[in-house]
Design a protein that fits this description.
Chain lengths: 334, 467
C-alpha cells in the first residue's frame, strides 16, 4: 500500500519533469534556448553595427555590449563559429554571409517593431527602443513580412535609420557627394563613406553625423566650409567628397515658409501646406481621412475657453483638434 | 519573346521592385487626388446659396461652447434628462410591476390548483419569473425614456459640443473628450455605455473609457440611491425640502462617481495603459432637425431591447438562486440568513452588514434586484419583496430592527456607486475587448475601489467615535 503510493508519487513527479513540451525540464530547455538565441542575435547585431560603422568587432566589444564575462563571451563566439555565423581574422570577428543574413533579419525586426510601436501603438519615442529590443527576437521571417506589409513597407525607422528590405538590402538613400552639390539650398547628410578610414575619422571628429541638415557656405580648391546654422565645419575637399547628401524632403522645404495650424489667430484664413513628417501611421491616416490634404483651405472658427481643443472649418465641416495635433499641420496664411 | 507567359508571381515581384521607386509620400498623393476629384464633382453639382442656417449654427455654437452659458446649458440638459427619466419611470414602473406581479399570482394559483408540488411552483414563479418581472419593471421604463432623450440630443448634433467643452479635463487625465458622451450614456445603462465607447477611435483611450464607465451610476442603481437619500438624508430636514435634499444628495453621489472616473483614468493612463494621447479629432456636425422615427427605432431596438435581453438572460438564474437560498431551511433559519450572518463581520468592517453583501453577491447579474433581495432577507420572506410602503416604516425596519446607522446608509451609497459592474456589463466588456484580461481588470478595479473607500470611511467614522 505504502509502496504503491510512493511509486505513484515518484511517477507523477517524474512525468512532471520529463514530459516532452509541458514538463519542467522541457520548459527550462526552451527557456534556455530562447535566452541563447537572444544572445546570439544581439551579438550578430553588434557585429553588423560595427561593420556599418567601419570599426572592428572583437570579443571584448561583444562582451562589453552584451554585458557578459569573458569566458561566456568566448563560449558564445565558439558556438557562433560552429554554426557558421562568424569568422575570426586574428582578433577581429567578421560576419559570414549566413551571419549577415540573420543579423539583417534581426535588425529589420527591430526597426519594424519601432515603426509599429511609434505609429500604431503611439508609444513615447524614448520607450520604443527598449520595447523593440525585447520583441525583435520573436518573429519569424513570414510574420515579419506581414508586419512589413501591414505598416505599408516603411523604409526608415522613427529615428531615420534605414530598414533592411526582405531581401536583406539596406535601402541607403543614394545621395551625391557634397562636392557635387550645386544648389545653395540646404542638404541632408544621408551617408558617410567609411573608406578610406582616415577621411571617415576626420568627418566624425569634425562632429558631422547622419541626418544633419547642412549648407555649403564656402568652397574653394583647398577647403570646404559647411554650416548647420549653429556650428561651422571645415574640411579638405578630398574629405568632403566622402559626405553624401540629398535634397531635404519636400515637406521640410515647405515648412520653411509655413507656421503650425495651432498658431493661427481666430478666424485667420490659411492653406494647408504639409503634414509634419513626424505624423505617421494611425494619426496621419486620420488626418488624411478628414480631408486635411495639402492645398486645403482652413481657418479656426470656434475657440474653447480653456484654450483647447479648437474647431477648424475645413471643406465645409467643422473639426476640433487639440493643440498637439494642430501643431503637426503646417499652414500658410492667405 | 513569343512564348513568355506572365505568372502572378512575376507581377508580384515586378510590383515589389517598383515599390522601391515610390516616393515616401505617395499615400498622401493618392488621398489628395481623391479629394480633389471629389471637389471637382461637388463644385459642378452642388450650388451653395448664401446660408442663413450656417449663421444660426454659428450663433448656437458660440452659445453652447461659451464658458458662461455653455456649462449651465449642459448641466441643465443632463439634469432634465435624468429628472424626466427618474420621475417618469417611477409611474410606469409601478404600472408594469402591478401587471407582471398579478400575472405571477395567477400563474402560481394555477400551478397550485392543478397539484404541482409547492417547491416547483415556488422555484418557477417566485424565483425565475419574479426575477425577470422585477428586472423588466425596474429596467425597461427608465431606458425607454432615457435612451430616446439621449438619442434626440445625439441626432440634434449637440453631444459632440459637450465633448468639445469638456475635452480639456479629459486631456489632463490622459483620456479622450468623447469619454464624456460614453459616461452620459452610462447613466442609462453601463453596458450601453461600454458599447458606446466605439465612438472613440484610439484603442488606449477607448479602454480607459470602458474600464471607468461603471463609476457612473446607471438606471438600475438610481432607485437604491434615491431610496437611501430619501429615507436617511432627507428625513433630517423639513418635509417641504425633502425632494430637493434627496435630489441634491443623489447629484452629490454622481459627482463623487465622476471624480472617481477622472482619478481612475489618470491612474490607468500612467500605469497599465501608458502611452501618448492619440490623435484627437472630433467632428462638430451642423445642427439637424432630429428624425423622430429613427430616434425611436435606434434607441428602442438597438439599445433598450439589446440591453434588456442581456439583462433578462442573467436575471432568470439569479432569481432562481435567490429563491433557493430563501427557501432551504436549516433549523429555524434559512440559507440566505446563514450566509448573511457568516458575511456579517466582513460587512461591518466595511461599514455595511452581511445582508447587504449577500444581496450584492446574488444581485451581480442585475443591480435592480439588490433592494428587493435585501428586504427579503431582512423581513425573512421567501421571495423578493418591495419592503414596507412608507419611508418611516423602512427607516424603522433598517435602523431599529437591523441596526443600521447613518454610516451604513452612506457607505451603501458609496458601495452602490463604486462596486463591480453587473454581469451584463462585464459580458459586454468582454465582447467589446475580446479579452478576459480587461474584463477581469474592470471588476478588480471597481471592487477594489469600493472595498477600499468603504473600509476607509468606516474606519474613520469608528475612530472619531461617530458610530
Amino acid at each position: 500500500m505504502n509502496i504503491t503510493v510512493w511509486m505513484a508519487t515518484a511517477l507523477i513527479l517524474l512525468a512532471a519533469i520529463l514530459l516532452p513540451r509541458v514538463g519542467l525540464a522541457a520548459i527550462y530547455r526552451s527557456y534556455r534556448a530562447a535566452q541563447e538565441r537572444e544572445q546570439v542575435e544581439d551579438a550578430l547585431k553588434h557585429l553588423l553595427d560595427r561593420e556599418h560603422q567601419g570599426r572592428r568587432a572583437t570579443p571584448e566589444s561583444i562582451g562589453g555590449t552584451l554585458d557578459l564575462p569573458r569566458a561566456k563571451t568566448i563560449q558564445l563566439i565558439e558556438h557562433m563559429e560552429a554554426q557558421g555565423l562568424v569568422e575570426s581574422h586574428g582578433i577581429e570577428l567578421r560576419l559570414t554571409a549566413e551571419g549577415e543574413r540573420w543579423a539583417l533579419h534581426v535588425l529589420r525586426a527591430h526597426r519594424l517593431w519601432e515603426r509599429y510601436l511609434a505609429d500604431e501603438a503611439r508609444m513615447p519615442l524614448n520607450k520604443i527602443h527598449g520595447e523593440a529590443q525585447k520583441r525583435e527576437h520573436s518573429l519569424t521571417e513570414a510574420q515579419l513580412n506581414e508586419l512589413d506589409a501591414a505598416l505599408g513597407h516603411p523604409t526608415r525607422d522613427p529615428h531615420g535609420d534605414p530598414i533592411p528590405s526582405r531581401e536583406g538590402k539596406m535601402n541607403r538613400a543614394e545621395g551625391m557627394p557634397i562636392t557635387a552639390w550645386q544648389a545653395e539650398s540646404p542638404a541632408r547628410i544621408v551617408h558617410l563613406e567609411d573608406e578610406p578610414a582616415l577621411a571617415y575619422q576626420q568627418i566624425l571628429a569634425a562632429g558631422l553625423r547622419l541626418g544633419q541638415d547642412i549648407r555649403v557656405i564656402e568652397k574653394n580648391s583647398h577647403r570646404y566650409v559647411l554650416s548647420d546654422g549653429e556650428s561651422e565645419y571645415k574640411l579638405a575637399p578630398a574629405v568632403a567628397s566622402n559626405i553624401y547628401v540629398t535634397a531635404l524632403p519636400e515637406s521640410e522645404m515647405l515648412k520653411r515658409e509655413a507656421i503650425p495650424l495651432a498658431e493661427l489667430t481666430h478666424g485667420q484664413r490659411a492653406q494647408i501646406v504639409a503634414l509634419d513628417d513626424s505624423v505617421q501611421g494611425f494619426t496621419r491616416r486620420r488626418f488624411l481621412d478628414l480631408g486635411l490634404t495639402p492645398g486645403t483651405a482652413i481657418h479656426p472658427e470656434l475657440a474653447n475657453f480653456f484654450g483647447e481643443p479648437r474647431a477648424y472649418r475645413v471643406r465645409g465641416t467643422m473639426i476640433a483638434l487639440r493643440n498637439d495635433q494642430a501643431s503637426q499641420i503646417w499652414v500658410k496664411p492667405v | 519573346m513569343s512564348n513568355t507567359t506572365i505568372t502572378p508571381n512575376d507581377i508580384i515581384s515586378k510590383a515589389e521592385s517598383l515599390r522601391n521607386n515610390l516616393s515616401t509620400g505617395f499615400r498622401d498623393e493618392i488621398v489628395k487626388s481623391i479629394y480633389s476629384e471629389a471637389e471637382k464633382v461637388a463644385n459642378r453639382a452642388v450650388k451653395t446659396a448664401t446660408d442663413k442656417r450656417y449663421d444660426l449654427d454659428q450663433k448656437i455654437d458660440r452659445l453652447v461652447t461659451s464658458p458662461i452659458t455653455g456649462l449651465p446649458i449642459m448641466l441643465l440638459l443632463l439634469g432634465a434628462i435624468i429628472w424626466l427619466t427618474v420621475s417618469g419611470a417611477n409611474v410606469v414602473s409601478n404600472a408594469i410591476a402591478t401587471v407582471l406581479f398579478s400575472l405571477g399570482d395567477l400563474g402560481r394559483n394555477l400551478f397550485t390548483q392543478i397539484g404541482i408540488p409547492w417547491w416547483l411552483t415556488g422555484f418557477l414563479w417566485d424565483g425565475i419569473y419574479l426575477g425577470l418581472a422585477w428586472v423588466i419593471s425596474v429596467m425597461l421604463p427608465p431606458m425607454m425614456i432615457f435612451f430616446p432623450a439621449f438619442t434626440f440630443l445625439e441626432d440634434l448634433g449637440y453631444l459632440p459640443r459637450v465633448a468639445f467643452n469638456l475635452d480639456w479635463m479629459f486631456k489632463k487625465t490622459g483620456a479622450h473628450g468623447k469619454q464624456s458622451l460614453t459616461m452620459a450614456m452610462g447613466f442609462g445603462c453601463n453596458a450601453a455605455g461600454v458599447v458606446a465607447t466605439r465612438v472613440i477611435d484610439s484603442p488606449r483611450e477607448r479602454l480607459i473609457a470602458i474600464l471607468t464607465n461603471n463609476f457612473v451610476p446607471c438606471n438600475g442603481r438610481f432607485p437604491t440611491l434615491i431610496m437611501l437619500a430619501t429615507v436617511f438624508v432627507a428625513a433630517a430636514f423639513p418635509p417641504a425640502l425633502t425632494s430637493f435634499i434627496a435630489a441634491g444628495t443623489v447629484v452629490g453621489v454622481v459627482l463623487i462617481g465622476v471624480a472617481f472616473t477622472f482619478l481612475m483614468s489618470w491612474l490607468l493612463s500612467r500605469t497599465v495603459l501608458k502611452g501618448e494621447a492619440s490623435a484627437f479629432t472630433l467632428e462638430l456636425p451642423p445642427y439637424r432637425k432630429p428624425n423622430i422615427g429613427r430616434i425611436l427605432y435606434s434607441s428602442i431596438i438597438d439599445r433598450t431591447i439589446f440591453v434588456l435581453w442581456r439583462a433578462m438572460q442573467t436575471a432568470a438564474p439569479a432569481g432562481a438562486i435567490i429563491w433557493i437560498l430563501a427557501n432551504i431551511h436549516l433549523g429555524d433559519s434559512n440559507l440566505a440568513r446563514m450566509i448573511a450572518d457568516w458575511l456579517n463581520p466582513f460587512g461591518l468592517l466595511l461599514g455595511l452588514d452581511g445582508v447587504i453583501l449577500l444581496a450584492y453577491i446574488i444581485a451581480i447579474p442585475a443591480n435592480e434586484i439588490v433592494v428587493p433581495t435585501m428586504m427579503m432577507v431582512y423581513m425573512g420572506a421567501g421571495m423578493m419583496i418591495n419592503g414596507p410602503s412608507s419611508n418611516n416604516a423602512i427607516f424603522d425596519l433598517l435602523v431599529n430592527a437591523n441596526g443600521w446607522t447613518m454610516l451604513t446608509a452612506i457607505n451603501l451609497m458609496l458601495f452602490a456607486l463604486l462596486h463591480n459592474p453587473c454581469a451584463t456589463t462585464v459580458i459586454t466588456i468582454y465582447k467589446e475587448t475580446k479579452s478576459y484580461k480587461w474584463a477581469t481588470l474592470s471588476v478588480v478595479i471597481t471592487l477594489g475601489t469600493a472595498f477600499l473607500v468603504t473600509f476607509l470611511t468606516a474606519s474613520i467614522a469608528k475612530l472619531l467615535g461617530w458610530v
